[in-house]
Amino acid sequence: MIPRAARTAAIPPQALILVGIASVQFGSAFANRLFDQAGPAGVVLLRLAFSAAILLALTRPRLRGRSRRDLVAALAFGLVLCLMNWSFYEALRLLPLGPAVTVEFTGPLLVAIAGSRRLLDVLWAALATGGVVLLSLGGSHGSLNLRGLLFALLAGALWACYILLSQRVGSAFAGLDGLAIALGIGAVVLIPAGIIEGGSALLRPGVLAGGLAVAVLSSVVPYSLELIALRRLPAAAFGLLMSLEPAFAALAGVLVLGQRLHARTLVAIVMVVIASAGTTLEARAKRPESEPVALG
């Protein structure tokens, strides 16, 4: 019988990353189906709670002996994680999945470009901004929901904060310990809003099962696969693959939610994907291949 580690090592790390990306986006599509019953806040509460329970059981992180700075960083990480997912799910209720992820994706993209004085990086930023503007103009059936766009932009800004905080927490906690703690904090913070939006629906077996599925698809599976893949995959290659997230999101929206993609939407998504890929390729020349990557 082949050991589990050997079986995992036989799978190309690029394939693990792509499976993780698909898992996140299809998880978001399934979460969308629960909004009518539990609301975005209720679904996020279930996702965070189940994810925290699973990862805390697996990692069993220790808080005793930690410095105040480490604990404050974990607290801030949990708050950002909670608000990022909540604002994204609010956007997802008002926008198609592909455009919502595309707009959100500008957050980490701008973090990658921030501080650069290279003309090419400025052009990548302009291309991504043009894609978002094109999305805001809508397709043949009118403009996208303005509130949804604002929620997606907020989620993108929080995603940028998440990346910066994950580097701090990742250096203070081993493995997924910091993430497990942050998920627990985020779940506790979201309890009031989740109960207000979800109410008694949160106790329905179907909703609970759906929340567990979303937690596994959107958190447990991708984080685990990324952690395994990053042991064998350069940072630049990881970033390049992650550039495909908006495209996977659009595909999940079509297959799971039956959402239609118009030509203008497709062009806008491609613009952001190209900008992200270009930024990643530029970054390869600026940093060592072994530089750690924040999971997100």
From TrEMBL:
Q: Which residues form a coiled coil?
A: none
Q: Which protein are we looking at? A: EamA family transporter
Q: Which domain of life is it from?
A: Bacteria
EamA domain: residues covered? 147-279
Database matches in InterPro entries:
AA-Vitamin_Transporters, EamA_dom, EmrE-like
Kindly indicate whether the keyword Zinc belongs to this entry. Answer: no
Per the annotation, which location comes first and is thus the protein's main one? membrane
High-level lineage: Bacteria, Bacillati, Actinomycetota, Actinomycetes, Jatrophihabitantales
Where, subcellularly, is it found? Membrane
Q: What residue intervals traverse the membrane?
A: 41-59, 71-89, 95-115, 122-140, 146-165, 172-196, 202-223, 235-257, 263-281
Keyword tags: Membrane, Transmembrane, Transmembrane helix
> What family does the database annotate?
Belongs to the EamA transporter family.
Its membrane topology: Multi-pass membrane protein
One Pfam family hit: EamA
